[in-house]
Design goal:
This protein is α/β, with parallel strands linked by helices. The protein contains 9 helices and 9 strands. Helix 2 (66-77) links the parallel strand 2 and strand 3. The termini are far apart. The relative contact order is 0.17.
């Protein structure tokens, strides 16, 4: 009994198909190959901005938080694991520029100045608030901070908010606030708890977490009300930004993003954000 041999043209078609598949596979991955190195996505973060990213207990080596879960889910889409490079907030973007990491995810605002040097994908909206000690009945608004100590995390957009406040205080004929900067969000909160500072400026998400963590010790007497947007930052160039947008949109469409928001008790509409930066 003779075997039926495929024609030369059929063999050629199969070979051509295999060649196309081999070429197409790397092309499909090209959008994020420069973000993932040897199966690892390196991410710079401050690691001190709950509930976005923080250590649950002193001495822990693994970060937790909403933003950690989001980035881990993005890395999973790219068949990668995450490695977090933790440092002071003001050094995160310079570390990105120096290629010590390939993304920055640290509750970092999308601003025109930052976009001059880096790309970003907006994905989360939050409000700025003022936090004081729960026992402070006098500091009800930023204009009550004349002559008082205002503790601010170094390298954040709150430094400009503080500078703008001093201009308002001067215009109102009041003494300026005594602005002091600290390297982390925890250090800033500590100044209020021990009585060295009257207030700080932070996000509503962080304030809610701190108040829940330390009931009866902190309060939010003032909400600025203007929603500000967090973004995940990356270096400019190539298709990396498009790949990151697609990964975030996939989390939104699948419902996984909503599940993560519920897990961390964040507003379900917090990630209903346009990803364009123009």
């Amino acid at each position: 009994m003779s075997a039926i041999r495929p024609s030369i043209s059929a063999v050629a078609k199969v070979a051509l198909g295999m060649l196309i598949a081999c070429v197409a596979a790397p092309m499909a991955r090209a959008a994020h190959t420069t973000l993932v190195r040897d199966g690892v996505l390196n991410v710079c973060t401050g690691g001190d901005f709950p509930p976005m990213q923080y250590y649950a207990n002193p001495g822990d080596e693994k970060l937790v938080g909403f933003e950690v879960d989001v980035v881990d889910a993005i890395a999973k889409q790219w068949n990668a694991t995450t490695k977090y490079v933790v440092g002071d907030f003001k050094g995160l973007l310079p570390s990105l520029g120096a290629e010590r990491c390939d993304l920055v995810a640290s509750g970092i605002m999308v601003t025109k100045d930052r976009l001059k040097a880096y790309d970003a994908v907006p994905y989360f909206i939050s409000n700025v608030v003022m936090v004081t000690a729960a026992s402070d009945a006098e500091t009800k608004s930023p204009l009550d901070l004349g002559g008082k100590v205002l503790a601010i995390e170094a390298g954040t957009t709150y430094e400009k908010t503080a500078a703008d406040l001093d201009a308002e205080l001067t215009k109102a004929g009041k003494p300026p606030a005594q602005i002091q900067t600290y390297p982390s969000a925890s250090a800033v909160i500590e100044q209020i708890l021990v009585g060295r500072a009257a207030a700080t400026i932070t996000q509503d998400t962080t304030a809610a977490f701190r108040i829940k963590q330390m009931p009866g010790r902190l309060q939010v007497p003032y909400n600025y009300g203007d929603g500000e947007t967090y973004g995940i930052y990356l270096r400019k160039g190539g298709d990396n930004r498009a790949a990151l947008v697609k990964a975030i949109e996939t989390l939104q469409a699948s419902g996984e993003m909503k599940t993560l928001l519920q897990k961390w008790k964040l507003p379900e509409t917090a990630t209903d954000v346009k990803h364009a930066t123009e």
